[in-house]
Amino acid sequence: MAQPKIALIGGGQIGGTLALLAGLKELGNVVLFDIVEGLPQGKTLDLAQGGAVEGYNAHLSGTNSYEGIAGADVVIVTAGVPRKPGMSRDDLLSINLKVMAAVGEGIKTYAPNAFVICITNPLDAMVWALRQFANHPAEKIVGMAGVLDSARFRHFLSEEFKVSKEDVTAFVLGGHGDTMVPMPRFSTVAGIPLPELVKMGWTTQEKLDQIIQRTRDGGAEIVGLLKTGSAFYAPASSAIQMAESYLKDQKRVLPVAAYVDGPYGIKDLYVGVPAVIGENGVERIVELQLTAEEKAALDKSAGAVQGLIEACKKMDPRLG
Ligand code: APR
Which residues are recorded as binding substrate (predicted)? Predict the structure, then answer.
């Protein structure tokens, strides 16, 4: 049977790691696209040679032409630039918006049926714009942030409780960034919600608050340590989990940046919500009953995303 085709747009740190993970997990054949000549070709040649040792037979190739992504089943987008010191939010927005316009055109022409996962920051605004540029069905295009944010939360919680990360579930809602909304009530150790664990004396509210803040600052903490780049291993793992759920119709319930138009009282926005990912893409958005406090935090987060989208609309009249 023909293998699925996975197109990776952007062959940098995350793109290369995505290709490695797709190979190791035997998800399909991989084509890596980048505007830098030789980069995707060199990386995929290196990775293909690794297949002889690791035992994967996937076909891995690199390209500088959008034709190479033709017929892709999954497209994962990391193309763009990360925010550098001295760069304003609007500078980053304007550069990556132009990249999304080019990537969207490529998807529209060559991969109109693909399940698209966007990782480029600022995530919620970029995936919103990418959908417009690609004219893609909303259920077939999502952003990756929540799986990563909740992975960070789960990691910190597992360290606090000294239990396996596998037994820690965590939910985060809202935009990717400072206004992200971690949800302690829906985060558990083996089914026991975090507020119960505080009552049981496993941790204190103060420690929990510190962990929540560290989760919010998770990306910045890694940038501060690396100095020359941002996180790439966990972001790649997170996107691969989403791709796998689509390709294998696993119907995983994952926090993703999905197109929300109605649920949670949110209109025409991409924002982090729990969603079922299966063969049809986003098959269901899970609408939790929020407390007034949680709803206010989500509204604030959605407002921040809305602000970025308005800025995008001003920068590119096609989005208006
Ligand atoms: N088309 C295709 N690729 C592009 C384009 C473009 N128009 N513009 C830049 N690129 C490529 C760069 O050549 C580079 O190889 O995108 C790649 C980005 O790679 P890195 O700089 O290594 O960034 P990475 O760490 O992979 O993160 C990518 O994900 O988490 C976000 O904030 C992060 O937006 C950033 C993205």
Answer: 83, 89, 121, 152
